[in-house]
Automatic annotation (TrEMBL), chain A:
Residues 1-106 form the STAS domain. InterPro entries: MlaB-like_STAS, MlaB_ABC_Transporter, STAS_dom. It comes from the Bacteria. It comes from Marinobacterium weihaiense. Pfam families: STAS_2. PANTHER family: BLR2341 PROTEIN. This is STAS domain-containing protein.
Automatic annotation (TrEMBL), chain B:
It comes from Marinobacterium weihaiense. Involved in the transmission of sensory signals from the chemoreceptors to the flagellar motors. CheA is autophosphorylated; it can transfer its phosphate group to either CheB or CheY. It comes from the Bacteria. Coiled coil: none annotated. Residues 378-575 form the Histidine kinase domain. Residues 1-101 form the HPt domain. Keywords: Phosphoprotein. Residues 577-711 form the CheW-like domain. The modification Phosphohistidine is found at residue 44. This is Chemotaxis protein CheA.
TrEMBL record, chain C:
This is Response regulator. Pfam families: Response_reg. Keywords: Phosphoprotein. Residues 4-120 form the Response regulatory domain.
Amino acid sequence: MGLEIRQEQGTAFVDVQDEMTIYTAALQWEQLQPLLAQVKAVDMNLSAVSEMDSAGIQLLLALKQASDRLHNRFVLTAPAPCVEDLLQLLRLRSVLMPAEEAETDG
Amino acid sequence: MDDLTQTFIQESEELLTQMEDALLALEDEPGDEEQINSLFRAMHTIKGAAGIFGFDPVVDFTHPVETVLDQVRSGGRALDDELAGLLLQCKDHTAALVEQITGVGEIEATLLADGYTLLEQLTGQVQAPAVAADAAQEGVVEQEPVGPPHWLITLKFHPDALRNGIDPVSFIRYLGNLGDVVDLILHHDQLPGSDAFDPESCYLGFDIIFHSDASKQEIQAVFEFAEDDCDIRILPPAEIECAFEQMMDELPDDHTQRLGEMLLAVGAITEHELTGSLQQQTEQATAEAEAPVLPVGHILVEQKAVSRELVDKALDKQQKAKQKASHEASLIRVDSAKLGRLINLVGELVISNAAVKLRVEEQGLGELSELVAASEHLVEEIRDNALQLRMVQIGDTFSRFRRVVRDVSRDMEKEIELVITGGDTELDKTVVEKITDPLTHLVRNSLDHGIEMPQERLRAGKPAKGTLSLNAYHDSGHIVIQIRDDGAGLDATRIRAKAEAIGLVKPDQVLTDKEIYQLIFAPGLSTKDKASNLSGRGVGMDVVRRNIDALRGIIDIDSEPGTGTTVTIHLPLTLAIIDGFMVSARGERYIIPLSMVEECVEMEATAWQVDEDRRYVNLRGEVMPYLSLAEFLQIPHCHDDHRRESLVIVRIGHHKAGFVVDTLHGELQTVIKPLGRIFSGFRGISGSTVLGSGEVALILDVQGLIQAATAQMQLH
Amino acid sequence: MDKTIMVVDDSASIRQVVAIALKGAGYKVIEACDGRDALAKLTGDKIHLVISDVNMPNMDGITFVKELKQNPRYKFTPVIMLTTEAGKDKMAEGKAAGAKAWVVKPFQPPQMLDAVAKLIM
């Protein structure tokens, strides 16, 4: 359970094996925030996210914003249905997954 | 029947009543723009509302009427008697249409046909159904909304929302049960830099375009649990705003409500927002006592609850309504019993103040007398204000007779015009209530027997149309009401015959015509046959007289054969408290209503040519009867009798008389207490009052005394 | 994923009606008959929402909610309280304790489902 994190050539690969909710947000932030300064890119695999709420989405937005400030790449991959659902509801695909959005558009 | 239909019916009824009032008022004051506008508005609004409800037959009928009224309004067509008559029929027809369509759901063919005939007369054109269909279509085009309306919902969550178990996403999902979330903007610009970011705090805001038929209240209810953790604004944007504007146009103008209530009424804001705004207004007022209080509308705009335009429109409308009926806008309804209690208490206050004053004078407490005078002055003002509260204009009472005149003239095929003057003259409501019956009787009497048939009038060289005038004015503390007709006048010979027949006058008695006319107020003279065909209620003029007497008023009749009859009623303005003039005769104190006192002179036998036998005085060339109060009221002699006497000259209308008294005490406020049953048969006394000393003084029935004096003079 | 709701009420019939409605709507339900029983059933598994009566023997709803909010695992769990019209003054107390929503008894199951959906849909 929790986050599986591995670093490869300046990229942090994060595999979320848990929910991303108000219950987990503080802990996940605690683990991820220090990471941002150490890497050039963050790649989060969201395929195993079991549940997501506003706090989870807000966490992703905060990570994205912090990465942008550090001129890091921030990539979300393989969103689980519950994540996909939320991205659509909140019109956040273009914000959080711009690359994929461009692909599907093209 | 649903609430909305009920609202439509009620609104239509009100508007149609306004229309009738306006038409009748225009007979008095042709060309009154406000009234013409009111006519137009009535049809315009009913048409608009009927369109929304899909009551096409109502739209079809009211549309051409509206067009005609628009022409009248712009001066393109004159509002003559014929048109006024037609419009009255249109009003009745519209009422019938509304009744049928809201009741049965469809209109009977005969009623529809009536409508076409009416419109033909009105417009001079054959009303092809095409025109009507056109009108109906216009109504539909005006009203048809394009799909369900768009709402703009703005949510700004508080930092603690997430910690409190409020998940914004959940509410947005739930919104999908009520309609479509068409678009959404998630605001995350409040997210702090990564060091300051607290993942358990909420930094999110949402703008949601929501497509739904739900009411604002229903949408608001979605967020009920989030209220403490979120700033919520639900704004109807451009499209829905038009609809709101239309609805606002359709609310009657005289709905002078507070801005907030009006916005609430059209559904532009919810109760919750209104309360919030009012609360904010109060808070601001307390916080910045110096600064001007922001109007509710301003606060609502600041909170983005309603758009600027909408508020301006509402304010504008409110302003107009205010201008139109500024006095109505500030009216409150008060139980008249409460007013009665207030006036009684003020009466007690007057008495107890008089007691204080008396005690201060007796004890020679000089330094207090100024205070007492000041408080006496205040009490006087309170008294006047309290009595003023119960004052109503007599115009409403007069107006009731419009329909009576209309109906009677139609039934009897007479042509009669009612002329009302002095409708704004005020008098105590308790008096108004008691005057209505006698007035009705007198009016019907004039209509039935005063004014002749048109042919008869023409033969007499008078215009075919008779005139009945109702007039009111104030005269020295009294209200004078006149009912005048230009009819045939009273038949003195016939009245005299009746009076002789019942032994009221002796055959050899010499009476002027005017004296004979007064006889019709005598009991028994207002003869049976006359009473029964008078008004069909079997009430004679003696009953009218008794009613007026009970109000301490007097009634007078004057008539000119062939020219008409005038009945004049003098009534006191109030039955509660009066300014009195206190006199005494052989030690007993009496109050004369100050308004009836003309002057006081010393009783000098030579100067006034007092004729002790025939009981009259000649006061500077004016001969009038007098009576001695002491004698008339049979007050026993006491020792310090007869030194100097004074003569108090009283007047009611054109009746004058002098009362001989011993002492003049001066003015005082007099609270009228009704007489107990023991005194009810007492001649010359109309009531009692309590003096500051606690003594009771009797209030003189000036009217009765003048009559007695006049009778005495004639007997000798 | 099915969400889990804990229903705390000393009336078995109310618990049942609520439970049937919630299960019918696809939620998992944990039932508890009073505050103490409810606390005992907080095993660390995730509970998305708590529905609790106010007046109950052993431990009333307000005390229970206070305890619940002290528990780090459940401090964010939203709470719907069941109140009666007469118990309105209890609302402020419940709010202070951490309850977010109210459903006034007597209620129909759809009302309850509505309230639930608003909070955890």
